[in-house]
Recover the amino acids of this structure.
């Protein structure tokens, strides 16, 4: 896929009304205008709110075009670029979009921002599907002034949809602005194309008029589409005349679901010179793709007042596909839309011809969209698991773990990741992250990688315990050697398919599970050396009497339970002796119910005096020499 036809930013003007602009930023309607590389929010001269740069992956940097005075709008002067040395091959903007259909517009610019005098080569994906390709060298106007590209795509992932940029060679992808807004679910034949296709704009022109659209003129467009002048797409070997509605109102425009603007139908081209001449537009395309063509008509010639006065054939890619009589279809001064899908083109140019039958043909506008099938994505549960691993393993930005781990298939998968096609999508089959300087831990979310065959995390600085989820039944090779893992080996590790298990040079302890050790017995490879705390299998020390598989065995648990019961019994006996069983002369230390009650105090005193008398009598009986009271002998 080559660099798509791009809308050059050459004009500036007053803005469209805010009420007509679907791109007003904010989470409420999930519309965002992002000034890539910008550091502050602002409102443009056209009343559009722009957001400072956000939602981007790590490793990139902000830049500024070399000659900002050539760019009339602030969002065109700044950019974000992603050097693969720091950001990896794949970098993304993760846009918070719920499921639905969205209109996306990008502004790409180079203007020698990096002083290298070389435009970069990179790809762009939306919905995990390759949609745009930039190849160096760019056309000079695009490199110097920048260019717009737009498309309609479905977002089916939550909580974010990724717009990703993939570096080719060592080039740094760059983007200056991103605009995204929801569109009507039925827009552009959404009932047919919504769920399975991305529609990439390969040309949107207004016939007999100059460029117009929000952000460039005062004219409104509900989707913020910009309509290019048609002169660059005409077959210049033919003669054309421009006509207008002459100020008369054109009905039937600006209607859902497509909201085509009224201005589009207020001008048109027809043939000049000989009435037998035809209209032809030559639209650049890529081969092997199908295209959705939209033709826009309105009978704006007051001299046509009945059916049959203007009839012409539509010929697409050399095939006569329909015959049009505008007045017969809708009458005069009324918008009429017609669409057709051209399949499996083999030429790099799509010819759109209007051949006269009666009178001269007429055309108000033309749109051409490449129908790009959605690519197969990674199974959602495995995407979630990989993102959890990215966090727990502390994957560095330079590895480019952004977007979908496996898609688009034309790109390499995430660094260290191998993918294959599964029954329900792409699946991860291999992770090779040896010697990457990782310092995190293994999350138990790894259990969702149910197709994982090989896992190599050796020679890192990973810590923590081994999660039970590490024992996937699909796993054939496991190498987590030379890390800093602690704790016992989960009993889940050791499936019937596991043939290699390298756990050496860690800080593991406890008894080795029998199913894991049996790998070596049955001809596999197992290495547990360098773990001083492991025990219980040949070549390793015997485990303690009550120790098994990293914890107490059944005998140990019984002994522990018996010990606990004995201690509890002793405690109960002591409590009984000290606190419950009382002699006949025990003091009564009950706190009085009413300290102000004379009777209560008297009763306490009488009880104390009786106890004291008994004690004195007993002491006198056992002491022949008498006793002392208040220092006086008796």
């Amino acid at each position: 896929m080559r660099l798509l036809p791009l809308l050059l930013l050459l004009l500036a003007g007053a803005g469209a009304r805010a009420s007509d602009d679907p791109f007003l930023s904010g989470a409420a309607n999930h519309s965002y205008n992002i000034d890539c590389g910008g550091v502050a929010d602002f409102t443009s001269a056209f009343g559009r709110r722009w957001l400072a740069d956000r939602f981007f992956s790590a490793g990139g940097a902000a830049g500024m075009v070399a000659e900002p005075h050539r760019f009339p709008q602030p969002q065109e002067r700044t950019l974000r670029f992603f050097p693969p040395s720091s950001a990896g091959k794949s970098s993304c903007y993760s846009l918070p979009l719920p499921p639905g259909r969205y209109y996306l517009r990008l502004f790409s610019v180079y203007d020698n921002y990096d002083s290298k005098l070389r435009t970069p080569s990179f790809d762009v994906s939306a919905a995990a599907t390759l949609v745009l390709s930039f190849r160096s060298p760019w056309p000079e106007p695009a490199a110097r002034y920048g260019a717009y590209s737009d498309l309609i795509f479905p977002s089916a992932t939550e909580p974010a949809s990724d717009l990703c940029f993939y570096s080719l060679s060592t080039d740094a992808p760059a983007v200056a602005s991103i605009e995204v807004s929801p569109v009507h679910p039925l827009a552009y034949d959404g009932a047919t194309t919504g769920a399975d296709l991305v529609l990439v704009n390969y040309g949107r022109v207004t016939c007999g008029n100059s460029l117009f659209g929000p952000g460039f003129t005062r004219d409104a467009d509900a989707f913020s589409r910009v309509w290019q002048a048609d002169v660059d797409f005409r077959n210049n070997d033919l003669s054309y005349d421009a006509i207008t509605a002459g100020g008369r109102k054109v009905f039937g425009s600006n209607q859902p679901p497509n909201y085509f603007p009224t201005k589009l139908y207020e001008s048109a081209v027809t043939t000049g010179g000989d009435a037998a001449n035809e209209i032809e537009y030559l639209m650049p395309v890529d081969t092997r793709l199908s295209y959705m063509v939209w033709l826009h008509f309105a009978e704006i010639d007051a001299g046509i007042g009945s059916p049959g006065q203007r009839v012409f054939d539509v010929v697409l890619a050399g095939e006569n596909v329909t015959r049009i009589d505008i007045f017969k279809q809708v009458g005069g001064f009324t918008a009429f839309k017609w669409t057709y899908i051209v399949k499996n083109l083999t030429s790099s140019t799509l010819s759109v011809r209007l051949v006269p039958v009666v009178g001269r043909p007429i055309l108000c506008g033309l749109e051409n969209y490449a129908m790009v099938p959605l690519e197969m994505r990674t199974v959602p549960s495995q995407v979630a698991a990989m993102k959890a691993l990215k966090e727990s393993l502390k994957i560095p930005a330079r590895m480019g773990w952004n977007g979908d781990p496996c898609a688009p298939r034309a790109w390499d998968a995430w660094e260290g990741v191998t993918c294959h096609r599964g029954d329900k999508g792409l699946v991860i089959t291999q992770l090779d992250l040896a010697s990457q300087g990782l310092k995190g831990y293994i999350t138990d979310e790894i259990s969702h990688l149910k197709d994982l065959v090989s896992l190599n995390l050796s020679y890192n600085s990973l810590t923590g315990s081994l999660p039970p989820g590490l024992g996937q039944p699909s796993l054939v090779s496991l190498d987590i050697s030379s890390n800093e893992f602690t704790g016992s080996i989960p009993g889940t590790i050791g499936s019937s398919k596991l043939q290699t298990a390298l756990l050496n040079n860690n800080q593991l302890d406890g008894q080795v599970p029998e199913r894991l050790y049996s790998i070596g017995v049955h001809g596999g490879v197992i290495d547990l050396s360098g773990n001083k705390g492991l025990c219980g299998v040949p070549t390793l020390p015997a485990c303690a009497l009550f120790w098994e598989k990293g914890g107490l065995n059944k005998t140990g648990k019984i002994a522990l339970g018996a010990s606990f019961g004995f201690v509890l019994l002793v405690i109960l006996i002591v409590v009984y002796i000290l606190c419950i069983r009382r002699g006949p002369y025990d003091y009564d230390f009950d706190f009085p119910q009413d300290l102000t009650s004379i009777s209560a105090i008297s009763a306490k005193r009488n009880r104390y005096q009786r106890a004291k008398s008994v004690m004195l009598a007993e002491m006198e009986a056992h002491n022949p020499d008498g006793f002392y009271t208040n220092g006086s002998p008796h």
Summary: Helices lie at 84-87, 140-145, 190-193, 326-330, 380-392, 514-521, 554-580, 598-622. The domain at 184-374 is CATH 2.60.120.430 (Jelly Rolls). Confidence is low (pLDDT under 50) at residues 1-21, 23-28, 584-634. Residues 282 and 351 are 5 Å apart (CA to CA).
